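Severity: low
Component: inverse-folding endpoint
Summary: output formatting inconsistent between runs
Steps to reproduce: submit the following structure tokens with default settings.
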């Protein structure tokens, strides 16, 4: 119970069946955990901070009239003993904390169309700038009659939820950026820091249990209405893809959490077998039956028939004849 537990002046942890020495970062985390202190509650290295962005958001979303030191105390961002804490620093206009690194790739990872990095600024500014880059590539307007309709290739609400979760649940004691990789068919968001202690991967993915690593940051995001504080983020992302053919994917490792948001395609009454073929086709733009068949759980004849059926439904485009026939998602 009294973390860290030392043996001959060294701290250890269990790793499967082995006992290994912890590194410096994990030792500092154990010390804080033993004192029931979180990283965001520690005194911020910088004490000359400004909060114009935070002030603006509070006035805009909850109509707060006066912003001063008492406001920060109410939000658990300041106390008379230590001054500004790390949560305060993360919210400040200028700070030393890492942000988000975004890359838009072309046909492969060697082709980069855009690179945008948002560092050392208020977490709210990071959040908004990231959303602006998202809109440039995954939203467009379509004229339908006399009306203009906004088309979202990926649900903006799902993207905002994923980014907000990455920002408020990440491990801020790691000097590493959140990575956002944008592709034509998906977005991958990788957040530093695995799951906090006390929650399993199943509990995290199912929404059965929520443990806040940064409760003060989460509280501010909740008060502004950007997130639900009760751990509904993953569930909400899944709900936004309920009618989608491809579903979001979640990967949890010891030091990262990865969320994959695919381009939204409605399920056009595809059968279970047709969905399997669709997933194979989604990996590349154009394929022949000889390239598809090895990955399909059916014989070559059935795979060909499924592709023809999907062509009739308008989901697959078929080009060429005979052995030169190619199939692609329409």
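Observed output (run 2 of 3):
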């Amino acid at each position: 119970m009294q973390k860290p537990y030392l043996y001959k002046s060294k701290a250890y942890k269990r790793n499967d069946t082995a006992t290994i020495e912890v590194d410096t970062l994990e030792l500092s985390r154990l010390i804080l955990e033993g004192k029931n202190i979180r990283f965001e509650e520690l005194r911020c290295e910088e004490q000359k901070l400004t909060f114009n962005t935070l002030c603006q958001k509070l006035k805009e979303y909850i109509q707060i009239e006066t912003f001063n030191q008492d406001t920060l105390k109410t939000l658990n961002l300041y106390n008379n003993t230590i001054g500004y804490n790390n949560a305060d620093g993360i919210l400040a206009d200028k700070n030393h904390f890492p942000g988000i690194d975004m890359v838009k790739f072309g046909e492969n990872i060697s082709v980069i169309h855009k690179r945008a990095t948002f560092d050392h600024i208020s977490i709210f500014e990071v959040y908004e700038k990231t959303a602006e880059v998202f809109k440039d590539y995954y939203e467009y307007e379509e004229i339908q009659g006399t009306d203009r309709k906004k088309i979202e290739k990926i649900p903006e609400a799902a993207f905002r939820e994923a980014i907000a979760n990455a920002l408020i649940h990440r491990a801020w004691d790691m000097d590493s950026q959140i990575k956002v990789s944008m592709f034509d068919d998906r977005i991958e968001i990788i957040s530093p820091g695995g799951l906090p202690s006390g929650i399993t991967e199943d509990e995290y993915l199912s929404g059965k249990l929520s443990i806040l690593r940064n409760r003060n940051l989460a509280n501010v995001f909740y008060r502004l209405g950007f997130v639900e504080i009760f751990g509904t983020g993953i569930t909400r992302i899944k709900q936004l893809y309920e009618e989608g053919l491809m579903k979001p994917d979640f990967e949890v490792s010891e030091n990262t959490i990865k969320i994959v948001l695919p381009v939204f395609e409605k399920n056009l009454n595809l059968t279970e077998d047709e969905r399997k073929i669709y997933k194979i086709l989604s990996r590349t733009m154009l394929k022949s039956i000889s390239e598809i068949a090895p990955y399909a759980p059916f014989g070559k004849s059935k795979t060909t028939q499924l592709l023809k059926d999907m062509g009739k439904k308008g989901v697959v485009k078929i080009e060429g004849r005979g052995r030169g026939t190619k199939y692609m998602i329409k």
